[in-house]
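$ fold --in a.seq
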Amino acid sequence: MSGSCFADVLGELVDLTKVERGALERLEERQRHVRRGAVLQRENEECSELFILRKGLMMSYVLLDDGSRQILRFLFPGDILGVSSAIYVEAPETLAALSDCVVSPFDRNTLSDMMVEHPRLAAMILVYSQIERVSLTDRLAALGRTSAKARVAALLLELRNRLRHTDKSIVDAFTLGLTQEEIGDATGLTAVHVNRMLRQLEEEGLIGREAGRVTLIDERGLIRAANYVNRYVGLNLAWLPKPTR
């Protein structure tokens, strides 16, 4: 693998210069393989590195007092991991691999140097973090105020949209890549309840399922059922600093 996966993600939002792409590529010079099920960063342990996910699927989660797990985010190629850890001595969340992954680790000083030299990239990291924050706020509101069917529907739409950023061949069908328990830990439902909601969405003609793949048959209907908003569109980035020449 070459180039910068993070640059590919940011490049969907703004036209990056050659200099900016070069700066982002330097964040991904080192690569580390992470096996499925392995923990990359553990909650409440000292942390000094950030990461960019280059390949695979990961998740961030916290463990609650009763031992249950709340999945906060699913993480895709091009995502920057552990940004919140940059401002804490101890990691506020656990990062774990849902598939065999490749990550690029880098330390905080490297990020600091890049921000000083390339103010627009620093602003883009703020943009990226705010998109992530608003998406998480949407899911928090959904957990408290929407039906189980809406939560599962919204997660399916989010997964398809995120996967499409790195695989342009995806239109309506995609490999789910998650167990029903993992979907439940992200939506506040039991695995049994997730299975029931998936069947209901299928019976209503909104999705199709076969051999681990999901097809969005009626996307508009699914969006209505989920009250879903794609937070990667409708951005106003006219205020960004000028790029480094």
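$ fold --in b.seq
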Amino acid sequence: MNYLAHALLAGPLPADRVGGVVGDFVKGPLDPLPAGLGPGLAAGVMLHRRIDSFADTHPAFRRSRGRVSAARRRVAGIMVDMFYDHFLARHWGQFRGQRLTDFTADTYRMIAGHPEPLPAAFGPVFERMRGQDWLASYREADTVALALDRMAEFRLRRPNPLAGAGDELLAAYAGLEADFFEFLPAALAFARGLAQARDAGG
């Protein structure tokens, strides 16, 4: 999952939502807590990781990865994460009553006001994310394509085939959208179950 989906699936608690957004910037085991990582953020990061594991094994998500061309198959997970954020932004009103722009503004406030230290590498990313409202901008397919092109150049260290990957969203749009609508309700139920079990001490 990418930033917007993780923010939604994390639920209403600020620490969970912040952990959902920054989860990919926290590496390594969480027990014992790494230096500089507070328990609230660690709980949100753990939720992020369990949601990622759920996505990786869900039939609809796996089907979406299979729609990616063989030339880009090794980065299919990254692509589908971005594609699903696009569909979520496009169909936001079906999953959340709050307006998307209000939700993203709340999310940025939660991150900026989080009392625990955040990963240092996330700081510059957050400034761009908030300044350009990345989360809401994913509703435009052109923005997703541009984000993938930038990721190909700046985020991944090794040579990769992400440049031009936005074309694959358009090429398999209907199938990917159908996969998304199968996947997201299941992911929401899974995330709610995790939060309930945790809150009950399970």
